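INTERNAL AUDIT FORM
Audit reference: QA-55
Scope: verify that the stored structure record matches its stored sequence.
Auditor: D.O.
Record contents follow.
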Amino acid sequence: MNLKSERRGIHVDQSELLCKKGCGYYGNPAWQGFCSKCWREEYHKARQKQIQEDWELAERLQREEEEAYASSQSTQGAQSLTFSKFEEKKTNEKTRKVTTVKKFFTASSRTGAKKVPPEKVEKAMDQIEKYIMTRQYKYVFCPETTDDEKKDLTVQKRIRALHWVTPQMLCVPVNEEIPEVSDMVVKAITDIIEMDSKRVPRDKLACITKCSKHIFNAIKITKNEPASADDFLPTLIYIVLKGNPPRLQSNIQYITRFCNPSRLMTGEDGYYFTNLCCAVAFIEKLDAQSLNLSQEDFDRFMTGQTSPKKQESDSFSPDVCLGVKQMYKNLDLLSQLNERQERIVSEAKKLEKDLIDWTDGITKEVQDIVEKYPLEIKPKNQALAAIDSENVENDKLPPPLQPQVYAG
């Protein structure tokens, strides 16, 4: 698949994503920059070279054994018959082992070799992979000897910073206002997130494949025609940005290291996996030019100072449901409330500063007045006597009234 996404608004550095062999197809970073076809050729060349080296090693070992056996027969002719038989049996056993090694590396097309159907070989490899990787998963997934965890955190932080990216910026041919398309998008996000819960590399690949098929169905429903490769990659990028799958880099590295090579280099699983690697590489290098934005707007969106303008309610077509209109109206209200809140916080900080300055000014004025007019405290005056208290000057007052009893 050639890179044609640039004409749709996504500017991709082809020198970094194309196969380094120059065939014009996508290069997978997990395959040292080769595409699936070129990587398969390089893999077969390396395998044939290894087989040839093993074959030569087996032949050399056999010659050495034969020479050692002949030398031992000439120098130890006087030994007993029992010891000679023991040496002969030992040499035959070694020769048989070397022959077994040679047969193991011999092509299956030789005479007498039993050819196993590829389907059975593939099925056996899948079962072996499932058994081994299920038991060793906690030891080989995101090991401490690698920087997979660091890459996971970097990608996750990058995707969170790009939460404002809209489908229109990526030229995504998907209309989420259509209920069926919206369901497909949700399923695709669910599948790509579910990948982290699987243990077998084949099962993780299956999640990527299911996610990709839902994307193709969403594009097909929206455009009412089969989806193309140029439509698939931008939509996959949008799904990854919207879903932010956990431990994305660790899952990609795990699949690359332990998945059956034939599954990665052939079929739809390898194709979808290659596109996922390209999508992650694009997200890591996404800039203002890739989204047709000015550098100033891109920096403001990345820092959270503002967000892209939402679609106005008046621009909706009459067929759009009321729920969608209400959703965008609520988003506009939230944006307005956010602006008001920021303005209130700014004014509150200013008021707080004014109060502190006013308090300091009043305190200084009071201190100046106290220093200029010091306070003098005079002694208290003598308290006046109460009216009913004992006083010798009141001895001329009439005596108090006495109660009198009258006879009836």
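Auditor finding: record pair retrieved intact. Residues 1-12, 97-113 have pLDDT under 50 and may be disordered.
Action required: none
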